[in-house]
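Posting this for the archive.
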Amino acid sequence: MDTNELEKSKTHITVEIIEYIPNSVVSKTILKKTTGNIVLMSFDDGEELTEKTSPFDTYAQIIEGNAEIIIDGKSFLLQTGESIIIPAHKSNLVKANVRFKMIQTVIKSGYE
């Protein structure tokens, strides 16, 4: 994962920050702090993230295309502009049935 943040005090067209790469999931860190991070991701058709469980809530927002997000075995189909909160300690899997881009935000504070 690229850990270089975006330039601050500069406007960005979010969907243009990251490109699709064939047969890949690409990520770009927008902001990374000890209290959480924001990552932009692109998924080529057929790609997915390994099923995982996080100790923190994760906000996933689709900014281009359509995604399938599976939380504790329940499938959610999200379209451009839609989002979902993946609860902490729940298994989840992100799949690309078609290519898509999303913003993923994790806030780590408040779990002390």
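The domain at 14-107 is CATH 2.60.120.10 (Jelly Rolls). The two ends are 27 Å apart (CA to CA).
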